[in-house]
Amino acid sequence: MALYIFSDAHLGATDSDNEDERLQKISELFDLVKEDGERLIILGDLFDFWFEYKNAIPNEYMKMLSMLAELRKRNIKIDYVAGNHDFWMGDFFPKQMGIPIYRDEFELTYQDRKIHLLHGDGLSKSDVGYRMLKRVFRNRLNIWLYRKIPPDWGIPLAKYVSGTSRKYTSKKERLQKIEKKFLIDYENYARKKLSEGFDIVILGHLHDPSLEKFENGYYINSGDFIKNFSYVKIDSSSVKLLTID
Length: 245
Prior knowledge:
Radius of gyration: 17 Å
CATH topology: Purple Acid Phosphatase, chain A, domain 2
Strand content: 15-25%
Distance between the termini: 22 Å
CATH class: Alpha Beta
Shape: globular
Helix content: 25-40%
Order of helices and strands: EHEHEHEEEHHHHEEEEE
Strand order of the largest sheet: 4-3-2-1-10-11
Largest sheet: 6 strands, mixed
CATH architecture: 4-Layer Sandwich
């Protein structure tokens, strides 16, 4: 049996033209999970935007929700670590889907390995602007006030803000390829967690799949399900970063 992890599909992104392909690739991943998986972890940004009202959720994700429900019917445990595009989750996933939500880091022991998981947005100290903005977005009062906006207005507005955030992140990713600052900060974070006794550290957000084996454990970035279609698989004998071809 195995543990699967993936992140950053950004379903519903208004400026992306491969939505059907992403859904198909996720379906193929879920078929693999059904074969030998006992647990699936979504490491943030499955949706490009998610915001819940008391009696309303975005209706464009029903196919994805149905796919997740099918896994739950097979008694496959699913955990959801919120990212920067889906941290405005309420109680829909825990109550209606049986999927717990973790708004920051998530830690577990699997096959005798201690694993630390975090989406990773705002992790780099050089990302000063977003680190400040993150506090505003996650403020409970601000979330409560936003829910006072009618869904037919609030959801399109939030989708626009989400798209702007993703474009800002893409610019940062281009800069990181020049100065390598983000990659260094993520690796240093992983090394710190490994020194604290974890065996595996898994992050997302960068859309840059990588697996590094250090003397005291693994650092993995799960990549994305937009271009790379990468995922992590952990079983009793191996730790792998794989792709859906």
